[in-house]
């Protein structure tokens, strides 16, 4: 059986033109997906059933026992942390927010270690963004800043920018210019019309220089800024002003480096300046396929996009205090529920050391680095493969992922719903 | 020698990210990409091991030459190896300094640990079935 127009649950591109061939209850072929999507659809090594740590060994347990363990752990905790959420569907994320509120816990998603700083900047100065379709059909100038889509979002260039046809462009490949700004050469910089190699940590200075040139104050600049010759910066501003429609896409090269959210604020203000001359937009290259959805769900339910602390009985948000890395590094939480993410692999050492000292339950289809710190892990279906649900593309467009085969694993929403129902019985009898 | 460590996504890291026990994931995230001139100065060849030390810990990585990097900088794909030596401080933003950790690098004969061994060192019990 061939399922057409399946949705790829890997990165924020959320490609919705995947063809999946299912034979005898297994995915045997995938068409149109990139390497990352192929590996996700064809991946095996699922955890067969729930497991519980018993001293120095693991033992298999039933789903009922695993759910009860999670319920007891969360009810006994004074300051539970509910972390992850970006690799699951919106319906499961909703249950997570309700659960965090009832437990008076902290709920945070992976955006705090990816585009959290971008959201902080957007909260300061707004987001002049647009959908990917607008960029595909109109943009004649692209700037990729601090990102490497060839490796991280492999079809972004073919579906929406460098290699995509555009309705309002006669010869899109020839008419589009691509500028890449990065600290190192990558496969993406190789296909740029203009590569701007900046010194590590110099993003803020280079963005400020571009703003100065756009305002006609370029003469005040030194000969180089952040390792970039002034002439190249002037040439880039010239290209931007001549464009009919420019689009900036930025990655973790801006959010994780010195300056953090102030870099993005500066980039947005550059776009604001360029929009006085022509049409310009800016958007983040979101990583997990539904990290945008976790921000949406959290925001419409609590008013805040990530790092929400319910310990006061109301939603409180203060990144740097109520975000997962800080809470773990301060050894503050006394239990952790991890859903659809792997902090064991992606958090600094000090954070995962604390995970080893507290009870941890993980809901995830695969054994991963975080499994080592779990008391219990509950395997679930993979959204977009054996479960369906809503996800948000990197431009904020919600797309319903499809279930392409049945495996018998419960979905994240089912397991979280069972845990939440039991917590409600105790806290809201 | 002192270096500035950058971390980031690679296609091999992304393709193997759901199977952290695999050799592909261990090799990719346990690699330190470095300019050939720096490798000559350190006296190491491709696929030899180096000890990478930061103020927050140390880890043994495999070194691979990358002519695209600027001398004085290294690149390590996202994963447990890089995070073993990155600070948990976020400067009140929630975001650690994933792209700007200063490290010292020296050649070593010590073997590179697996991802699961790194987790065991921190008090975890890897699931290896």
TrEMBL record, chain A:
GO terms for biological process: methanogenesis; respiratory electron transport chain. One of its GO terms (molecular function) is formylmethanofuran dehydrogenase activity. GO terms for cellular component: membrane. Keywords: Oxidoreductase. It comes from the Archaea. Gene3D superfamilies: 3.40.50.740, Dimethylsulfoxide Reductase, domain 2. InterPro entries: Formylmethanofuran_DH_bsu, Prok_molybdopt-oxidoreductase. CDD domains: MopB_FmdB-FwdB. Transmembrane segments: none annotated. NCBIfam families: one_C_dehyd_B. This is Formylmethanofuran dehydrogenase.
From TrEMBL, chain B:
It comes from Methanoculleus taiwanensis. The lineage of its organism: Archaea, Methanobacteriati, Methanobacteriota, Stenosarchaea group, Methanomicrobia. InterPro entries: Asp_de-COase-like_dom_sf, Formylmethanofuran_DH_dsu, MoPterin_dinucl-bd_dom. This is Molybdopterin dinucleotide-binding protein. It comes from the Archaea. GO terms for molecular function: molybdopterin cofactor binding; oxidoreductase activity. Pfam families: Molydop_binding (PF01568). Residues 3-101 form the Molybdopterin dinucleotide-binding domain. Signal peptide: none annotated.
């Amino acid at each position: 059986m061939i399922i057409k127009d399946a949705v790829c649950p890997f990165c924020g591109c959320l490609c919705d033109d995947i063809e999946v061939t299912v034979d005898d209850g297994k995915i045997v072929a995938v068409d149109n997906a990139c390497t990352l999507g192929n590996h996700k659809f064809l991946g095996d090594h699922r955890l067969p059933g729930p497991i519980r740590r018993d001293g120095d060994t693991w033992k298999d347990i039933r789903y009922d026992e695993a759910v009860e363990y999670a319920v007891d752990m969360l009810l006994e905790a004074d300051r539970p942390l509910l972390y992850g959420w970006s690799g699951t569907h919106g319906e499961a994320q909703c249950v997570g927010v309700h659960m965090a509120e009832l437990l008076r816990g902290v709920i945070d998603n992976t955006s705090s270690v990816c585009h959290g700083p971008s959201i902080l900047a957007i909260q300061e100065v707004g987001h002049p963004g647009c959908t990917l379709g607008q960029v595909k059909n109109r943009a004649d100038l692209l700037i990729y800043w601090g990102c490497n889509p060839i490796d991280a979002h492999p079809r972004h260039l073919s579906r929406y920018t460098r290699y995509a046809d555009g309705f309002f462009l006669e010869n899109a490949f020839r008419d589009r210019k691509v500028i890449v700004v990065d600290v190192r050469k990558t496969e993406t910089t190789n296909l740029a019309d203009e590569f701007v190699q900046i010194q590590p940590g110099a993003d803020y200075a280079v963005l400020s220089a571009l703003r100065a040139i756009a305002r006609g104050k370029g003469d005040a600049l030194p000969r180089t800024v952040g390792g970039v010759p002034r002439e190249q910066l002037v040439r880039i501003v010239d290209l931007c002003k001549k464009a009919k429609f420019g689009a900036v896409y930025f990655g973790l090269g801006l959010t994780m480096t010195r300056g953090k959210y102030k870099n993005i604020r500066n980039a947005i203000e550059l776009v604001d300046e360029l929009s006085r001359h022509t049409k310009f937009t800016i958007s983040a290259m979101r990583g997990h396929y539904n990290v945008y959805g976790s921000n949406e769900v959290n925001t419409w339910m609590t008013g805040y996009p990530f790092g929400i602390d319910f310990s006061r009985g109301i939603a409180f948000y203060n990144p740097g205090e109520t975000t997962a890395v800080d809470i773990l590094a301060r050894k503050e939480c006394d239990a952790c529920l991890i859903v659809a993410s792997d902090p064991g692999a992606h958090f600094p050492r000090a954070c995962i050391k604390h995970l080893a000292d507290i009870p941890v339950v993980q809901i995830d289809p695969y054994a991963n680095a975080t499994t080592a710190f779990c008391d219990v892990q509950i395997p679930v279906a993979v959204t977009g493969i054996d479960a369906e649900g809503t996800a948000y593309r990197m431009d904020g467009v919600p797309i319903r992922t499809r279930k392409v085969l049945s495996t018998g694993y419960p979905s994240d929403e089912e397991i979280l719903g069972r845990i939440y129902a039991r917590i409600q019985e105790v806290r809201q009898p | 020698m002192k270096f500035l460590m950058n971390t980031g996504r690679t296609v091999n890291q992304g393709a193997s990210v759901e199977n952290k026990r695999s050799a592909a994931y261990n090799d990719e995230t346990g690699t330190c990409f470095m300019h050939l001139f720096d490798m000559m100065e350190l006296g190491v060849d491709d696929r030899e091991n180096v000890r990478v030390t930061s103020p927050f810990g140390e880890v043994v990585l495999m070194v691979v030459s990358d002519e695209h990097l600027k001398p004085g900088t290294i690149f390590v794909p996202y994963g447990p190896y890089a995070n073993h030596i990155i600070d948990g401080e976020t400067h009140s933003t929630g975001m650690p300094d994933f792209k700007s950790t200063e490290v010292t690098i020296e050649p070593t004969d010590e073997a590179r640990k697996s991802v699961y061994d790194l987790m065991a060192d921190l008090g975890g019990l890897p699931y290896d079935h």
